[in-house]
Design goal:
This protein has about 700 residues and is α+β, with helices and mostly antiparallel strands. It contains 14 helices and 26 strands. A 6-stranded antiparallel β-barrel has the order 3-17-20-19-18-21. Strands 13-8-7-5-15 form a 5-stranded mixed β-sheet. A hairpin with a 4-residue loop joins strand 9 (about 290) and strand 10.
Length: about 700
Amino acid sequence: MRTGHPQPTARPAAERATSWRRLRRRWLVVGAALASGMAAVVWVWAWGPAARQPATNPGLPPATARITKTTLKETRTLTGTLGYSDPAPVTATIPGTLTWIAPVGSTVERGDPLFEVAGRPVVVLYGSSPLYRTLRDDVAIAEPQVKVARARAALRDAEDALVTAKTQSSLELAQAEAKVADARVAVKKAQEALDALKKSPSKAQDAVDSARISLANAEGDLKLTRKGWDGKTDAAKEAFGKALGGYRGVFKKWLGIDLSESDADKDPESLLDSWDVDLDEIFKRPGRYSDLGRFTQTQGAPSDDPSTRWNETTVYTWLNFYIGTIAPTCEDGVIPAQGACVQREMDDAWSAYRQARDSLDAAEIQGAKAISDAGSAVTRARQNLTVAEEEFAALEMGPDPLEKDQAEKQLALAQASLGVAEGDLSKLKGGPDPLKVALMESEVAAARVALENAITQLDAATRDSVLSGADVQQLQRNLAELGYTGFTVDGTYTPATAKAVRAWQADLGLPVTGMVEAGQVIFTPGPIRIAEHSASVGNTIRDGAVLTYTDTTGLVTVELDPARQSQVKRGDAVTITLPNLKTTPGTVSKVGTVATTPSTGGQSGANRPTIPVKIILTDPAAADGLDQAPVLVSITTATAANALAVPVTALLALAGGGYAVEVVDPDGGRRLEAVTLGIFDDAGGLVQVTGPGLAPGQRVVVPAT
């Protein structure tokens, strides 16, 4: 045990087993390191892990490396292929000579030509439904459509005329009713104004008295609220002080540590970690008769070691004079009979302190709010009293004769206006002219019959002539995206749709027919990348393959050993090394769940089952110009923060199994420390080690270079 450094606890068996398995995976690396230090291995067999060489070692000074505390990352490097999605073929259905084709590797978007047959372009549009028929309109429906439009306009005009005949008198009636309502409001306001001038000051005096009583009550409530919450806050402060003293006392009791104000705001686990204090090591029974400050046998109480945060004398007293059992940490929180649990007392004291602190904060916040609310009530009561007093003072002086006369005249005028408005309203309640309304209703009925007849004729023509369906709607949507409008995207190939097609054909240099033939457009899910030519310019094609395409997003495929499936998951960040040795980031987008075995023959092991892993490049431009290119993919599979690390070459194999490192003490003496291995950081050439005699800053022997 080294002075001032708490010793790490032993790692669980499962974790040690995992470390050995990781070590075996890197046996070649460690073996190379050990081969260069075989003499050191022989020394380990002869001396054993506890042996120590004197400081006066006659040999040359060894090459050493420092033990560091750092973050280690274990990575897996897998081989993969950079490419794109599986290619899809494009077949020409229009016979003729291939006169142009988009270059391999180029990107073709909506509205762009894909290839040309006899100078006529075949254009890319976006969609999922193939074009399997010729799309066109039929002029036979044009005349019925015009009749329907005219019949709808005639019906609309007749309905508007009927509404006018019915609502003209109704509108006047509504306006008259509104005038009556306004006149009644004016009368009410004029009467209230006159009543206010005649108002008796006695009621105003009552309002003043009531406002004064309300103010007195509000001020009394404020005093009571302040007194009540002051008492609650003082009690919470007293409880907080006791809990704080208890929390500080438990550290003083067991470790002889006086907590500072900043320390008292941290939980026990954080404090112990910040001091490098391990309760299991400090209160370990085998050291009860040792000088804990210097780790040497002694007959008396040890002196305090200033390099440690705890007081060795206090710990020594507990270990040697406490008659019960001391459990540094309690398994499942169970305190041994006639004993004590140090960690349990610290945690209980922390919980009590935290609860008292929360109670004090709550009392202060709630008290401040209650006092604020009571103060606001006092302010409102004072404002109400001021208003009541001002109104009372104004009424004591009596009404102004001129104002009273004016108010009486306003009331008389408002009453006269109300009489006129009520008279006008009674005249309009006779309703609209019945003969005029009946005439308009007959015209509306005739217009509806004419519209129904026109719609019937249009339906009959449409059933025989008009195309409709998902392919039509898909074409309409593309035309609209390309800027050709004037129609409704409804899946019906109307004359308006044909007009937009003709404009599109004219811009492309195609025959302006208003029809879209099967094979004139190719529907794709989106922008495409030309993968390969299946025909060459000058070839005569007829129902033959012209080219294949993929999507435009670069994709890395890795064939993963099924045993490593759990080490890779969707969303993992990876680093991809390209054939030019440049690196670019990527993200795992899919991990296969079904293993497959390649059907091709080859060398031994080539037919092992694998699971496909798909990776998307963060920067797709990094893959420009590359297709089916081999790449390396590095994936971080484990991370260890604040880990003790040494170079892999510092590891020594022990004769009885396991590994050790050779530590060089400040006086030049060398000793072996058995270590437990953690993860390997291949990029840094480091390995995670734990051992009771290891600490950051120590130096270990490595092979000389």
